[in-house]
Specification:
Blueprint lengths: L2 E4 L2 E5 L2 E8 L2 E8 L2 E7 L5 E7 L11 E11 L3 E10 L1 E8 L2 E9 L5 E4 L6 E7 L14 E10 L5 E9 L6 E2 L3 E9 L5 E5 L9 E2 L4 H5 L8 E3 L10
Parallel strand pairs: 7-12, 13-16
Antiparallel strand pairs: 1-6, 2-3, 3-4, 4-5, 6-9, 7-14, 8-13, 9-10, 11-12, 15-16, 15-18, 16-17, 17-19
Length: about 240
Amino acid sequence: MFGIYQIPFQIDASGITVMVDREGALSTYQRTSPWGTVRKMLGFRDGRAVINPVEPVNLPQEVTGMLEFHFMPVAVRPESLISLYLKFPVEIGVFSGAADNYTLIDVFSLARPKYSLYGTPEKGVITRHVECEVYESVPLTHPLEEGVLFLSIKNASRDWVWVSRVVFETSSLRLFYADMVAMSGEMEIFSRLVAETRILGTPPVEGMKQTLRVYPTKKSLIPEKTSYLMEYGVGDRDGV
């Protein structure tokens, strides 16, 4: 389903149909899925559409710009570096336009979103919550449903640390795709309570294509944040 399509077109995959039909000087966009049908009028009849994975924080509506992974506790040695792989739910964006001037038409997903709170009720942040398994090598995925986070964890402290969560600021998130959807991130731990995270802007595997993003189409006047400081803990041996 991911790719560039000349209007008019119709694409079917995994029980979802996305199509754009011409109607006189206008076009009609329609997306049909097990959850119903979405129809929109487009004020043009020619051009192209781009369908690709987008930042997984847009559904059911824009609630947060934070993405939290929660997983089985992993013990990390003092002053060491490890690599893990985590799955995340994919959201799919439909754009229309050309060059660097695209507009977002639709966002949908085969996964139902869950949200959580990282930190205290008074000062914490709402996060898109991802409960996931930990993999030692790149896991197999269905690209329309899930992607893979290539995660590097550096324990810069002099103590053993149990890690069971990682939180990212998604304004600078970069997704890539080929035969899978993926992104690269890193986490530097300073103590059991404090760590810094960032999403990298390079593809985790050579030859992958970078996706169009929802963030620039909505928040172009707000500067991107390149990292996030986790100040409410990275987890413990019980996964809390």
